[in-house]
Amino acid sequence: MTEARPPDRRLFGLCLAALLWAILVLQAGGFTTSIHAGMAFLDWPLSNGSINPPGWLTEIDKFAEHSHRLAATGLGLLIIALVVAHARLEPRKLIRRATYGLLGLILLQGALGGLRVLLDKLNVGGEGNFQAVAFAVAHAVNAQLTIALLASVALSHTAGWISTPASAGASTRRLGRWSTGAVLGVILAGALMRQNRVTTWVSGGSPVDWFVPTQGEGTLWWFNFLHRSGAVAAALVVIAFAVALLRQGWRTGGAILALLALQLTLGILAIQLPQNPHARTIHLVSGAALFSLIVVGTLRAHRREGALASL
Fold this sequence. Notes:
Blueprint (H helix, E strand, L loop, with lengths): L8 H26 L25 H30 L3 H26 L2 H4 L5 H26 L3 H4 L7 H26 L11 H5 L6 H30 L4 H21 L4 H25 L10
Helix pairs in contact: 1-2, 1-5, 1-11, 2-3, 3-5, 5-7, 5-11, 7-9, 7-11, 9-10, 10-11
């Protein structure tokens, strides 16, 4: 049976390289958003009509945006290589299909990024910027989904995945699905906050201010509230899932708890240092790692069920 084969180190190494590069792309994109440099260049895919535009090595906004574009192009090439390698070397049909889906997400990601630029009000005119913000939010959320799928493909090439003796209990699988949905909801609210530039709505340093915005009103206030207070509610579900994994004997649960603690700490730090773009950027990257690990844990918990039985 194919599932008895040992892990393919070549495919795992390629997946790991792509995953590390994807994190670099996310960091570059997160920093670009944190310093509001997304429109440093009004054209796309080139930057001021060039792959080496003047000033990109000396001006921080141009450096942030152009380095993000260059890194994203490199990731696209890595994903193409990953898909070709899996098509040639991977016997498991669902894993091959997962890489095709990964390529689709990468192509979608590039299109969303381009539309975010081309449909910005600086290019199309007008007072509102709903279209550009909507594509920017979709771009941000799709990045998280892409990294999670890439991490899942990498997981399929590990001994832990191949040797999983049985699926977890029904309650553990259910907690995994709830955790995935809850954290994705928090990510969406966070993207709405970042792209609408309302991440700094605090006026005091009390613990209440960490989770309930003390500035703003209307829909944007709710984005903030759902991200901050929603993170607390999601954390409770994630903790329950992680404990269930630990009881199963899977160390993934411990890694999830550690990343959750780091993520909450970084979130509070980002609120306390509202003008520091690095705190928000690291919070974004840590959130992607946490979400990916939850997805990986959920997939492993379903390892022997239904369609996953042939993986």
